[in-house]
Amino acid sequence: MTNKTIFTGLFVQKGFVFSLEATLSLLLFALMLFALPAQESFSLKELAATQQANDLLRVWSAKQTTETEMISDTKILFENNAELWINETQLLSAEKKKNSIATEGIILDEKLFEKNVKIIIHYD
What we know:
Layout: H1 3-11, H2 20-35, H3 45-62, H4 67-78, E1 82-86, E2 89-92, E3 99-108, E4 114-123
Antiparallel strand pairs: 1-2, 1-4, 3-4
């Protein structure tokens, strides 16, 4: 037996056969995956806050809502954790927290004048 037949006899069995280059490539790929930074944990607070703000905008656009009603609705839903802006004028302020998310929409009144409404929600 020659050295070549011994060498090939050791690695040729039923199953997969990888060359040295393929094995090194897979090992390098695995090392690169482990070197990636860990993704931050996902929280549903952001999703819930966005959905609540979008729901407020939908309700306000469906009926004729005054600015005082908008302020009271925002306070009821988000307590002191939300800012309310209408046409670049801040109507409601909140203390800043670690995270914030904003929702913006355009509401038309009965005379078809636009109101740019922005709700910024602060949360931990």
